[in-house]
Design brief:
Largest interface: A-B, 112 and 79 residues
Helix content of chain B: over 70%
Strand content of chain A: 5-15%
Low-confidence stretches of chain A: 276-288
Radius of gyration of chain B: 18 Å
Shape of chain A: elongated
Strand order of the largest sheet of chain A: 3-2-1-4-5-6
Number of strands of chain A: 6
Largest sheet of chain B: none
Low-confidence stretches of chain B: 86-90
Largest sheet of chain A: 6 strands, parallel
Mean pLDDT of chain A: 85
Distance between the termini of chain A: 67 Å
Strand content of chain B: under 5%
Mean pLDDT of chain B: 82
Distance between the termini of chain B: 55 Å
Order of helices and strands of chain A: HHHHHHHHHHHHEHHEHEHEHEEH
Number of strands of chain B: 0
Number of helices of chain B: 4
Structural class of chain B: mainly alpha
Helix content of chain A: 55-70%
Order of helices and strands of chain B: HHHH
Oligomer: heterodimer
Chain lengths: 465, 90
């Protein structure tokens, strides 16, 4: 296969990848988009295997088959609720691959560069390895946090900013050392040291971020895996890698920005860590009430309220995922709609543990997507809502964000169910949410608390409908 | 310099395309971009024919792990959509 044909194949693959992302602008076109992506990948692979690979076919195919089998089984066995951690662990694979390719390229003595080209080439290798290692370790920690294998609380080492600064300076310092050594024909040692530095940096960075900020972390790592791929493209002079890496990198960056905007926090402050759990003053200072001040309700009364309502809004949060209540919630929405009640779902951008988490759960439960709305779409409709049901959500429906100026969540856009007639909050107990902030919503006049496990409570309500 | 031009253009395209993705599809977006980022396998494939042992095994391992990502990354959104193409269905 000639150079020209390979280039054509790469261009075609690039076009298909762009169309894949474009297809995600609407539900209807998203499926087609997925097929485009698979085709693009296949074309790129075939072109490379036929055109560039000249030896070791058996080893290559063996690895593809084994890897493919593992990937396929993973995807089939995954529960929707495990999506965030699956995505995290997959990101780590891309990061690791970038590191391996970086080392491989460094050890490759086929193409010889000189002078400024050599320097640029080495810088590209350095960056690829750095970003790749950072993505790898950061994603592994993200996976551990999301799957609750380690605590979601942020690890706040004393002087952690100082530590980050040291690591950053070391990374820059070693770049110079590496360039010097590489010119003399060495450099392996520096490259390995920088890999370790980047690994440590990745671990520390993600350890310092609290559980509730995970949506930002996952999109950020998504972005980094893209930049790592782009760096690999630069070092290999491969435009396909550069383009795809840039697409993925900007996609992740935009998602991170959207998440941060939805929490009304600056990206740097999220990354610098600390928030997202009982971070310092947040917990104790806000405790303004106790179990005695809330008004509990039982399932039967809730059912009656629902039946008498014209418009009902369901506001799910991470708790719904934990309780695996989405199917019961679907049943509830279906029964109410059969009775002529207007049911809608209100999704806050950072509900759950990753962007679009709630949407995926509701989709799995077969909730039609035309009754699932984003916060911006329906927040103004709350005055017309008769009953709002808050399921396993806390900070995203917390009026303290608007009413309390020095609250840790001040300024964060939230859903506003208290503007409706009645709010029913499904909660296991009066324990605070991830921000450690008390929620005045629970004590409002028109709020009733339905204590218990989300799934159990909804099943109870269903009995009376 | 040519590569850098391509990079800047690609970032721009990415910016324009991704802002159009509807929020309810953010999870499939993350999954698909993740699958697509396993394009680094091309880098490993470029190394697999190397006569050098270390190079070859590094590349082989890289191919293995990116293959996990390719198949896993594309199979997951398929599972998502099997359930979500439900407009009007109850």
């Amino acid at each position: 296969m000639s150079e020209g044909m390979i280039t054509m194949a790469y261009v075609l693959a690039t076009i298909l990848f762009i169309l894949t992302l474009g297809g995600l602008s609407h539900q209807e076109t998203s499926r087609r988009g997925n097929y485009f992506g698979m085709t693009g990948m296949a074309i790129a692979l075939l072109a490379t295997i036929i055109g560039i690979v000249t030896d070791n076919y058996a080893l290559m195919f063996g690895c593809i088959l084994v890897g493919g089998a593992i990937g396929f089984t993973l995807a089939k066995k995954i529960e929707m609720t495990q999506m965030p951690e699956l995505v995290a662990i997959l990101h780590s694979l891309v990061g690791l691959a970038a590191v391996l390719v970086g080392f491989g390229t460094f050890l490759d003595h086929d193409t010889v560069f000189t002078g400024i080209e050599l320097t640029i080439h080495n810088v590209e290798i350095y960056l690829g390895v750095l970003i790749g290692a950072l993505t790898f370790s950061g994603s592994v920690v993200a996976y551990l946090k999301l799957s609750a294998k380690i605590s979601g609380a942020p690890l706040m080492l004393p002087g952690r900013h100082f530590l980050n600064l040291i690591l950053l300076l070391a990374a820059i310092g070693y770049l110079l050392a590496f360039l010097g050594a590489a010119e003399a024909g060495n450099g392996m040692q520096q490259l390995m040291i920088v890999t370790v530095i980047a690994l440590l940096f990745g671990i520390h960075m993600v350890m310092a971020i609290g559980g509730a900020d995970m949506p930002v972390v996952v999109s950020m790592l998504n972005s980094y895996s893209g930049w790592a791929a782009a760096a690999t493209g630069f070092m290999l002079g491969n435009d396909l890698l550069i383009v795809v890496g840039a697409l993925v990198g900007s996609s992740g960056a935009i998602l991170s920005y959207i998440m941060c905007r939805a929490m009304n926090r600056k990206f740097l402050s999220v990354i610098a860590g600390g928030f997202g759990s009982t971070g310092g003053s947040g917990g104790s200072a806000q405790a303004s009430g106790s179990e005695a001040d809330v008004q509990p309700i039982d399932a039967e009364s809730v059912a009656n309220l629902l039946l008498a309502a014209d418009k009902v809004m369901i506001l799910p949060g991470y708790g719904m995922a934990v309780a695996q209540a989405q199917h019961s919630v679907f049943e509830l929405s279906r029964k109410l709609r059969d009775q002529g009640v207007d049911v809608g779902f209100g999704i806050h951008p950072v509900a759950g543990r990753m962007p679009g988490h709630m949407n995926v759960l509701l989709a799995e439960a077969r909730v039609p997507y035309d009754i699932v709305f984003e916060m911006d779409e329906i927040n103004k409709d709350f005055p017309k809502v008769d009953v709002s049901i808050v399921i396993g959500a806390n900070d995203i429906v917390n009026p303290a964000a608007q009413e309390v100026p020095d609250s840790p969540i001040a300024g964060m856009p939230v859903l506003e169910p208290w503007l409706g007639k009645t709010t029913i909050v499904l909660k296991r107990s009066m324990a605070s949410g991830y921000a450690g902030v008390d929620n005045p919503l629970f004590y409002k006049e028109n709020t009733r608390m339905l204590f218990g496990d989300a799934k159990g409570s909804i099943d109870e309500i269903l009995k009376y409908l | 310099m040519g590569h850098f031009t391509v990079f800047v253009l690609a970032c721009f395209v990415g910016y324009m395309v991704v802002w159009n993705v509807t929020p309810s599809l953010h999870t499939p977006l993350m999954s698909v971009t993740n699958a697509v980022s396993s394009i680094v396998i091309i880098g490993a494939l470029l190394q697999i024919s190397s006569p050098d042992d270390l190079n070859r095994y590094l590349a082989a391992f890289a191919i293995l792990i990116t293959s996990i990502n390719i198949f896993g990354g594309f199979a997951v959104p398929s599972a998502c959509w099997l359930c979500s193409v439900n407009k009007g269905e109850q």
